[in-house]
Structure formats: structure tokens, C-alpha cells
Specification:
It is a single chain. The chain has about 290 residues and is of the alpha+beta class. About 55% of the residues lie in helices and about 15% in strands. The protein starts with a helix and ends with a helix.
Length: about 290
């Protein structure tokens, strides 16, 4: 009998998305001829009927970083602190896209990942909107199919009283939100599951039936390491984005205001020196609870 979870993942990835998002994915892949392998659409915009005025989220999967950038510092930055993140505009829509190699995408969805950022997102719904060939499709499905088992295996020892599969998901998402700098309202991690409980029950039961990776003997210490590393990586990625992402500090303020209900206004000097400006925001945001 074939494993159930990869079949569910494949079916979900192949579901249709907004045609404008699909066109954007194709235009994004065209910017990386010979390197682009797949484009995935994910995040809250998947649930939106009107994409105008929103910031769409994509992952661009490439064969490797030299193929994507040539032998430039961007390839080194993407390898050392993945992913690189860039803005993108197409036919009136705005997006940001993260770049990962096929090898890094597979690793960062698996229990071998040293941070939660990729598997925490791809344990949630996503769409495969552009793919180079059938081999690239197979590799994306195999990588994404690791995300839910990774999350659930790490969450299981931390779930109080075991709980049902939805409780396991909620425990996992709560832990992942605490392992990154997040600008989200309290309870956001729980609302992910509540928005589509049937989906999470089906995926969770399939992951459990197929068999989860072994849970760590000391899960609490693993999560503490993930939290410490996740916070550090968030700051490092923020610093890197000040060089790779035009207008990155304005996007940072927009995202925090949207998710945390704040009214942060970026000053001209912060735009002039975005790295210093972004870092000076952090203590204020921590004190106010806008990010955790």
C-alpha cells in the first residue's frame, strides 16, 4: 500500500490557485532561466479571494545557487544563511519570494533541519504553481511530505496528555511560533488549525499512519535549541535582507502593523540606513509585545 501522506500532499499542491498568482509564479521562474525548478505559493494569501493590496508569498526552488546567481556574493549568502528573500511585482501584484536550492528545500523540511522556518510553513497548505519538469515535481512532493511528520514528531513529546491529532498540531504550531521572531497576534498559531480542522485531521492521521520520525529523547531541550537558533537566524536574515530586499524596512513595518495591530512609522534616516534602523526597532517591539 502506498503511503497516504505523499498522495495528500501531491493532491493539495496541484489544487488550482488564483490565476494572477499562477501568472506571477511563471514570471518569477522566467527571471531564473536554467536554474528555476519550482515555484510554490504559500501563506495567508492562499485563503484570500482578492489579492489586490496584499503581499503574496512564494518560494523559488533552484537547482543550485551558482546557477541562480552566478558566482556572486548572493550565492554565498544564500548558502550560508538560507533563504535569500527578494521583492517582486507583476501585473499590479506585490510579492516577496524566498530562494532555496532543491537540496536545501529537502533538508529544511526534514528532521535534519536546524531551524523551523521551512517545515513549519510547508506543514501548512501550499500550491505548486510552476514546475520545470516531472522530476522537479517529484522532488517538491517528497520534500513537502516531510514537513508534517517533522512537526508532529517534535510536538508529540510536548503535547500534554497526548491529546488528539488536532491538539498535536496546535502544540506544534505554538512551539514553532515561539522559535522565530513573529509579528502575530496571540492565538494566531491555534487559529491556523481552527481555520481548516478537516485538513489538519486528514494530514495528521495520514502522517501518524505512515509513521513519524523518532521523537527526540529530550524534546524540551531540542525546542530550546530551536528557539535560540531561530531568534538568532531571524536577526541575521533581517540584516541580510537590508542588502537584498529593496524597501525591506518598510515591508517589515507593514507586516508588523498588519499582524500585531501596531502603528509603526519608518523615519527617513531608517530608510537611509535600513540595517541600523531595523535593529533599533527590535527592543521597542519586544517591549510592546509586537514580536516574540
Amino acid at each position: 500500500m502506498p503511503d497516504r501522506l505523499p498522495d495528500l500532499v501531491c493532491a493539495e499542491l496541484n489544487q488550482p490557485a488564483d490565476p494572477r498568482a499562477a501568472a506571477m509564479a511563471g514570471a518569477l521562474a522566467a527571471r531564473y532561466p536554467g536554474a528555476a525548478r519550482a515555484v510554490l505559493f504559500y501563506g495567508s494569501c492562499l485563503r484570500e479571494a482578492n489579492l489586490d493590496g496584499l503581499m503574496l508569498d512564494f518560494y523559488l526552488i533552484v537547482s543550485d545557487y551558482p546557477a541562480a546567481y552566478g558566482r556572486t556574493w548572493l550565492a554565498t549568502a544564500n548558502r550560508l544563511i538560507p533563504p535569500n528573500v527578494f521583492p517582486f511585482e507583476h501585473q499590479g501584484l506585490m510579492a516577496k519570494y524566498a530562494v532555496l536550492s532543491e537540496a536545501d528545500f529537502a533538508r529544511l523540511n526534514s528532521p535534519a533541519a536546524d531551524n523551523v522556518s521551512v517545515w513549519a510553513r510547508f506543514a501548512q497548505p501550499s500550491r505548486l504553481l510552476w514546475v520545470a519538469d516531472d522530476l522537479a515535481r517529484q522532488r517538491v512532493v517528497a520534500a513537502v511530505a516531510q514537513a508534517a511528520p517533522t512537526l508532529l514528531s517534535l510536538a508529540r513529546p510536548m503535547a500534554r496528555g497526548g491529546g488528539d491529532v488536532l491538539g498535536l498540531w496546535k502544540t506544534g504550531f505554538t512551539l514553532t511560533y515561539n522559535a522565530e521572531l513573529r509579528a502575530e497576534k496571540t492565538g494566531r498559531s491555534l487559529s491556523i488549525v481552527d481555520a481548516d480542522p478537516d485538513r489538519y485531521r486528514r494530514f495528521g492521521e495520514a502522517a501518524l499512519d505512515d509513521g513519524l520520525p523518532p521523537s527526540p529523547a529530550d524534546a524540551a531541550s531540542v525546542w530550546r535549541r530551536l528557539q535560540r537558533r531561530g531568534k538568532r537566524l531571524s536577526v541575521l536574515r533581517l540584516a541580510k535582507a537590508s542588502f537584498t530586499y529593496a524597501g525591506g524596512i518598510d515591508y517589515l513595518a507593514w507586516k508588523i502593523n498588519r499582524h500585531a495591530g501596531t502603528r509603526i512609522a519608518i523615519k527617513p534616516w531608517q530608510r537611509r540606513w535600513p540595517l541600523v534602523g531595523a535593529l533599533t526597532l527590535l527592543p521597542r517591539l519586544f517591549r510592546g509585545g509586537a514580536i516574540r
